[in-house]
Amino acid sequence: MRDFKEPAAIDETALFSTCVLAEFAEDGWTNDVLRQANVNYDPIKKCDERFQPYTMLGGNGAVWLNPFREGVSGVKCKARAIYHKDDWYYNASSWVEIGTAASTVVFNSDFVHTHCVNATNRKEIVEDFVHLQMWNATDDGGAKINVTTINSTSLEEEEEEVDEKPSVFIFVLDSVANSQARRSLPKTISLLHHEFDAVNLRHVNKVGENSHPNGIAFLIGKLITDLDKGIFGMGKENADWNETYACDRYFDDDPFILKEFTKVKGYKSLIAEDWAHGVFNFPNCKGFEHAPATHYMRPFQIYYEQNMKQSRKFMGEKQCLEFHTHLFNYLNKFIDAYKESPKISMVWASEIAHDYSNGTHVDSFFFKFFRNFDESFVYFMGDHGIRWGPVNEMWIGKREINNPMMFVSVPRHMRFFAQIWI
Question: N or C: which end of the chain has fewer CB within 10 A?
Fold first, then answer.
């Protein structure tokens, strides 16, 4: 194990052609971090792996009582659909009583809320659950598009019409630094490197303090905070917007990358976050007025957090459902629904590491998840490092806060050409 070494002095005249940066141990561990690490942390270690809700959602949007759930004969259940209104409110349909036969009412939303009580004591709630589906999903395979390709002989750019557009998957683990990822997610990182030829961009730097400015920068291409370049003997990069402009108006007319792929290129798209005060909404910003993606998980999250105590009781760790589990269940349904269509998605998981310097319990989860992305663009990244906690007080933490992880994998058939340009 080796600890941090100060880099050699840099010739300022060659600053942007030669970049000598500090390196940590290859596995991301230092003696200080190792001493405080809780590598056995696992919030679902004692969860009920046999958990099933009292209700079932069919592929046609119908709901019925789950005949395989013990005690189902002693409950009374109802269901309703939850719809997107805007980024802070949801609409809901009327409640419909649910029986053993499939409901005649079709719940035409991605989110179907079921609520069950004890049949003999109607004040005792026994289920409050939000089922996920891909409502009205049409797997049309996408349309043709002109893309720039590279001729393998001449290496000259040429236009070629292709039938398939590669899918794009963006995974953001909030507050995960590059070296933190290497120590917390070793199996996942090894898989990305060996099976997907992922490139580790080791020295990505944040542009803002928290998720809001960093997310707007890479998803919309706008700075909302000035960048000080004094360390380079330069001035500052002025912000494109001030924070008021970025917060008190909707983003619907801005060049958000997922919206561009959806509206312009015909991709099916998905956005899922596990915190209502997410990237476009922190601390109390408007976000989007209209759903910016084909499938937008915002209504689920708004309901979930408005009723947090009940949500965690019936859709939480006891049922083996962590915050991020709902995101990836939604994403898996999206992938299954659009097998032939080009897709773009952004899953932003805040709860895994935002308040915890130990994220090791999710390594196996991601190791199992990253299996069928060989012909897609994959961005596995953070937005900044951990901002508080014991690691943040260490010298490595003071470096990590500025250095979010960034692993990039391109479709296999493009990797030879990508290596040429790298």
Answer: C
